[in-house]
Amino acid sequence: MPVQFILGTDPNNKRNFLIDEMHEQLKKDPKAQMLYLVPDNVKYEAETMILKQFKDKNENAKYSGMIRLQVFSFSRLAWYLLQNKEIYQKPQLTDSGLGMLVKRILQQEEENLTIFRGASQQTGFVERLVSLFSELRNGKIDPIDLFELKDTAEQKDKEKNNDFARKMDDLSLLYSKYDEALKGKYVEREDLFQELIKYFEANRQRFKHTTVIIDHYEHFSAQEQELVLTLCKHTQNVQICLTLDRKALTTANDLNNMFYRPAKTYQQLVHELGANQIPVKEDLILPSYNQVRSKEITELTDYWMESTGPMTQADVEKYKDQTYENIELWAAEDTATEVSHIATKIKELVATGEYRYNDFQIMTRDLESCALNVEKAFVENELPFFIDQANTMSHHPILEFINSLFLLKKNHYRLDDVFRFLRTELFIPDYDGQDTSKEAYQKQINEWRQKIDIAENVALAYGYHGNDWIKNEEWIYMDRALDEESPLNDHDQKIQDTANSVRQAVKDYIVPFTDQLEKGQTNREIAGRLYHFMQRIGVIEQLQLWQDQLIQQGELEEAREHEQAWNTFILLLDEFVEVLGDEEWDIDLFLSIIETGFEEATFGMVPPTIDQVLVTNFDLPKIQPKKVVFLIGLTDTQLPQVQGNRSLLTDEDREVVENSLSSEKYLAVSEIESMANEPFSFYLAMLQAKEKIIFTYPISNNDNGENRISPYLTRLKNALSLNLQFKQSTTINDGLTRPEDYLAFIGSKMHTYGHMLISLREAIDRQKTPETFWLGLFKKLYHPENSRQRRLINSLSHKNIPKPLPEDLAEELYGKELYLSVSQLETFYADPYSHFLIYGLRLKERQIQELTPIESGIFYHDALDLISRQIVSLDRDLVSISKEELHHVTQDIFELLLESNKYRLAQSSHRMNFIFNQLSKTVENMVWSMIHQAKRTKYRVNKTELVFGQLGQEKGITGLSLPLNNNRKLHLRGKVDRIDTFQEGNQLYAGIVDYKSSDTTFNYQSIYYGLMLQMITYLDTVITFSEDIFDQKAKGIGAFYSTIKNHYVDLKKIGNKNLEEELLKNYKLDGLIIDQREVLQAADTLLEPKESSPIFNLYLNKDDQYTGKKILTEEEFELLKKFNRDKIIEAGNSILTGKNNLYPFDQKEIRVHTPSITGPYRAISQFDALLPENNYKDVIKMDKDEFFDYLRKLYSNKELDD
Question: Is residue 910 classed exposed, middle or buried when 0-12, 13-18 and 19+ CB atoms within 10 A define those classes?
Fold first, then answer.
């Protein structure tokens, strides 16, 4: 019955006193029973600590146990005493279940609400309302209290728009409905407390010899306080321990009092004990001195305690005169650097032999983000560690399985959803579970993963999605470029069959389930179908298999996670059915509930039992202090930490509510009180250290901003004259002057190697001698026989320069005889390394069915080829084709093309259909331009898509074969888009036209650098083999680019000019034309003196002479042809000698597609112009005169040399 407060400023002193007292009392009184009540987070530690100290007191005992002394938290005590009672048979809803309940109430009472009408749709509102209701129940505040508050507010302010009254009106209505929904049907924590109170009242005799000790609580909710008072009434005696300075009770209501929270708790309890006529013994005040804690740590905590009140100048000076070697203050570059230096410091201290790993504790307020850095740094430094934070279930495959499964229905089998679902590996069709060995499982899972990868590649390449997964239609796959045709080979057939097997599995197992997810059904019906579906496809068996395999591997903790995750899912499903089962099926609500439930659920933790560094939450200090404590991340936003009020009650609302309640009812701690408690939280954290404490903070944050040091640290720094040590990420800066500075970078061998290599590399790059410290360490650590070390050291001399291929390897890659396309040669000249990646290693990006410029260009080529052939087959001249006939011809061709599998992309969506229609119009306009050009020129289309050499499966006319070194040859292949010809007497003239889907202009600079070999090569081929093509020898016309695009004319600017002629200018052919009178005259028969041709780059002057920079004399054409062949031979010889240097053009100088720097292979080349070894080619500007002067000089010198 009597109650005694045990007060002291050091929790460790209280614990030692209590354990001694408990041991003595149990020893003296054989009837004595004891309950030691502590918060959940320290219950396990309290048990092990008491067991250990009891064993130490019984030196002769081999084992130690507790029968009459039991350690509980309030909730665990309720379970222990009530587990077999009726109340524990009722379901207890999780936060997710309570959220469902509140959401249903909101929907039902929507029309009766004012302030909160429609609020249920706001993100986070339901969770905040659940939190408020929980706070009210914990505070013993019932719906009637809120009704009375509403009535009082209305009477005080009848005429004004009283938002508080309306809020109370809404809350009282919702809270009463919430209370009604829970009552008698569900049991929550508050109900258990009330039942526990009744249990003690009904079983007084059982506890008449029981002493209750309550420790490690600084604050009690109203529910907990009532339970404490009940224990005081019905047990032998109660001891309540508070970390509190007796002098602080005189200013208990002062928010500046460091002990404000425990002092307020003390006063509240004393008041309620008096009101309940419970006798209170005289307080037991324990001394503050602790022999376990060092003098420096004691002075640190003493100063902090004293500094919260008035201090004399003498008090201040006594701390400044001291030297504190075991109190350090660090400022690190960033969080990663902060944790890295902590790791090396621990390594250093353990190496002295005076510390074990479990002598260290790291405390932070941001445990989640800190955990990532701790894991990285500690694994790298080979340090054992335990992070005291339960892992969330949000990443378990079950959640991904459920999310992706229902999104299949919602998004109609979108590719991302399908493959997210398949990659959960909870669905494996045709899985053979007979052999459960790890090897057999791994073999099957690897096969399934490969099937999924293949199916994804096929689906992406051909755009299979949506209905393609549902309908009875086989997928088609051919691994080929769009413009090549070949029969389906064995390899392609295997890929196609594999992809179809995955498609069929989805159709057979998944589609029947998603087809059942129709509106109009209840949540109960869908939940039942989901459970049976998961049973049918083997989800439970798969989870069991994973668990069994982990058990076999000794991973017991991880093995339990699968069982826990499944139980969580079943619990959420049960709650969903229980609360919302009869509501109409809502897929979004269901997914939200499951996702929130898994995010809030955590896996059970196994407490640390081996020698490990402990990483804990700053606000949940442990019972046992450690020799060395690191308090980290102490910026001005973390200490003091502003919690922020997320409650639906504002600070003003809370004040009104608190003032209207009786003393035994109250809300949770307010934001202002939380702020007032910050110095006390910091004090408790510092008390965790016994010998050494290190405060740290990161200077920069993740948002590239700068953090400020906590004002608490500034206070300590100034008061104790502490030096702020700067911790940098590497040793390459100039801030290290002492040898001991370098020791901060010494950790595990690999960690140390990393910092050593960074420093050595920096010295090499700066061309200076490395620091003596690192040179000495290098001599000590480096063992050349160690291959890993050798590779690391070799990295110091690494330069981003590709090694040339040995000639035998080049021959193996490219062949003894080269068979090349001209575009391949142009790629080589653009950048030899890009050529090596594409044509040597044959690297390809994963094919995705999308409309790229290449696919657009292929469509243009195919369409123009077929249209030209169709017109030729009609035996009609282009000029005679009317607009209507052109439209009919083009439409027939387009329909033919778009129905083919080659262009199935056009039918994949309305958007793609529209785009292809636009492409078709572009082609039609292009043919229109050809018709109108034909009206001015004698040139006529003779051949289209002429193949020379061997191109894929197609063999064309003979192509050029040029001699290379060592009696080798280079055989050219390609496809000429169009050949135009005209006949003058007995002489045939031929020229080539190359279609481009973007503006391309002929220039001599590109020819000089080998970037425009195609035009000249094609014209050279056509002239050289003209007898094979035309059955007669032909002379050259020229070579031209024709841009396929829609052109527009601004009608406001053309004035009186001819619209058709102005539009035709936009389709002008750009290229080279050979200076032959008959060729020039035939080019544009309507050209008048002093006019420019609208179809060629020609100008006819007043003297009837043709002029233009792109008109070549026959001598210039021969020089150009010779130079072009020499460039091809030069490239061929370079390829076979293994040349693959990374030497691209600067895109600002010459725009040329270079995959290794602007395309998909940059990640491989890692070209960086800032590196001294990575340079762009120097580019010479060159016009026509300069170019041909160069050629004449080049070949005259060669002739002299010969």
Answer: exposed
